[in-house]
Amino acid sequence: MQVRSARRRGTRREFLRDCGQVALGLSSSSLLGHSRYDGPTAQRETVTPATSSDWSTLTSDLETRLPALLAQAPTVPAVSMALVSDAQLLWRGAFGVKDLESKAPVDHDTIFEVGSVSKTAFAYVVMKLCEKGVLDLDTPLTRYTPDRLISGDPRLGLITARRVLSHTTGLQNWRSAKEPLAIHFTPGKRWSYSGEGYSYLQSVVTHLVGHVNLSDCKTVGDARVCATDFDAFMKANLLIPFGMLSSGYLYREGMARPHDDRGKLIAGRKSTPLEAARYGAAGGLQTTPTEYSKFLIEIIDPKPRDAYRLSASSLREMVRPQIELSESLSWGLGWEIQHTRAGDVISHGGENPGYQALVAASMRRKAGFVILTNGDRGYDEIIKKVVASEELQRFLPTIVA
């Protein structure tokens, strides 16, 4: 598995990056070849009857719009989507095929990689560890482990869980041979999106509550890692308790398969415990829109605190602005926060090779959506156009970049 930084012009990641360049500091209280199939194969269902003409208009529009967009985008094999309204699964639709070779149809149970949307789930678990006293949001991560991510830079001691979750560590998104891992500004001073920060925090969590297999180690993404029990840990602490029984971080047969921007199948991408140890927190979650909606509902309409669910105060801390990127965007803990004409919307995009994803929700409206695709062009050709539609904007006003 490979998690990449944005490379396409006009992506949401680049939009956020540009906004982040003007963010000067944390808010004062903080210490968002083309083979093609003959036509879209669809499975769709109204799970909860729409209670208004608006919902009916929206779902009817999606029933038509999504297969039409797929037909116009031969490099994107499938799109799977779910709508949440009044904290319930309102509608879900699965259109297209798992890959352009087998042309096996997707259905509601087809699993996709969600890329950086994974950060929302990991952030939730980190917040729960803070409630349990395993971690503290503002304690330097260096106090929890003898391992040192970077040697010779005293600013490492300023990186905390809060700064990881809000992307203010100063670490770049991902290291490479040309750009070795480094702290590029004093942690806490400004915003810069960082998968490396999440990977670092994941390693600290594993040191505290996980297990490492020292007999299975190698270099993954220019970092030396050993296999861990991250998949089992996330299943036990979030996925299974929230009813996300088919979700996880390791490859399974029957998943939607990834395709590049020419529609060519990206072969050989099968996440193992090694890849999950490196990329799990930052971009390794594999799920369905239906299952991710269960997690989303726990955010916008939470059940009472228990061994797995956050307290009301922890949840408020998670979704409140920690750092301002612009007048319309802030970042919370694991979530981008869009300040729209209809109130704040929490959201997160995801991009792994061959996959594109977007989730968004309104705490006030108790409404949201999840859109997953298995093509590099999925955001530009499908997601962006659906989100910008008048019908979906009426359902949930969302900033589109």
Q: Radius of gyration in whole Å, from Cα?
A: 20 Å
Question: Number of folding domains?
Answer: 1
Mean pLDDT: 90
Which term fits the overall shape? globular
- Broad structural category: alpha+beta
Question: Which range does the strand content fall in?
Answer: 15-25%
Q: CATH architecture, please?
A: 3-Layer(aba) Sandwich
The total of beta strands comes to 13
Euclidean distance between termini CA atoms? 27 Å
Amount of helix: 25-40%
The assembly state of the depicted protein chains is single chain
Low-confidence parts: 1-10, 19-41
Instruction: Assign the CATH class.
Output: Alpha Beta
Folded structure, characterized:
By secondary structure, the chain is α+β, with helices and mostly antiparallel strands. It has a single domain (12-395), classed as Beta-lactamase. It is 30% helix and 19% strand. The chain is built from eleven helices and 13 strands. The protein has helices at residues 12-20, 53-71, 118-131, 161-165, 195-209, 230-239, 273-283, 289-300, 312-319, 378-387, 390-395, and strands at residues 42-46, 78-85, 88-96, 112-113, 212-220, 223-228, 286-287, 323-324, 329-331, 336-340, 343-352, 355-362, 367-373. α2 (53-71) packs antiparallel against α10 (378-387) and α5 (195-209) packs across α7 (273-283). The longest helix has 19 residues, at 53-71. The two termini are 27 Å apart.
